[in-house]
Amino acid sequence: MTNIGSLLQGSTAGSSPEEVFKHIEAEARNLGFEYCAHGLRVPVPITKPRTTYFSNYDPAWQRRYQEQNYLAIDPTIAHGMRSSEPLVWSDAFFAQTPQLWEEAQAHGLRHGWGQSRRDSDGTYSMLVLARSQGPIDGDELARSGEKLNWLVHVSHLAMKASGQAVEAGPAQAPLTEREIDVLRWTADGKTSADIAEILGISERTVNFHVNSAVGKLGACNKTNAVVKAAMLGLMW
Hints:
Elements: H1 6-12, H2 17-30, E1 35-41, E2 51-55, H3 59-67, H4 75-82, E3 87-88, H5 98-106, E4 111-118, E5 124-131, H6 138-161, H7 177-187, H8 192-199, H9 203-217, H10 222-231
Antiparallel strand pairs: 1-2, 1-5, 3-4, 4-5
Helix pairs in contact: 1-2, 1-6, 2-6, 7-9, 7-10, 8-9, 9-10
């Protein structure tokens, strides 16, 4: 197996996402998979999250997938959004989407494995590996499980760091502990007066911290600031 760390080394040296994906493809082949797909999404803007997506699937299948809007019903995607636990494709897994499963297999995607990764800042990605022959059994997972998990981790970091990788926005000054406290109480529905009483500070000081957080987050108001801070994992 090639040095998987080259994914990170290459991305930090200014490699494009396309070049990083070529590394992912090579690692997938070394692990016994013909096909792979990687998608990465940042949490903001919330109404239209920015994404990067690459795959080496059959172009005819990619067109069909888009035409049928299979993204909306794909259980692989649904699982990845709910859980970071790895998954293995099976007839049972696709029981609720038989047409998608039948067509995927017709395009060589018969045996697959996938796992998602979500950062503390809300950045989400998923890696899917697939092949046309050879079921993925327990022995293979025991042999390659650690390498598969590591590939998910490194692929996420490398794609995120690559030249064209989508970003949550311009660099922001870090929120202070007091700003975070104020946003937390705001998220709980407390008014500035309520927060002032809870924290033992003046209402004017509360509003100062709110306005400061709004500016740092590039938000349009305090509600937007609370949502952004939550999606970016800044309030936990």
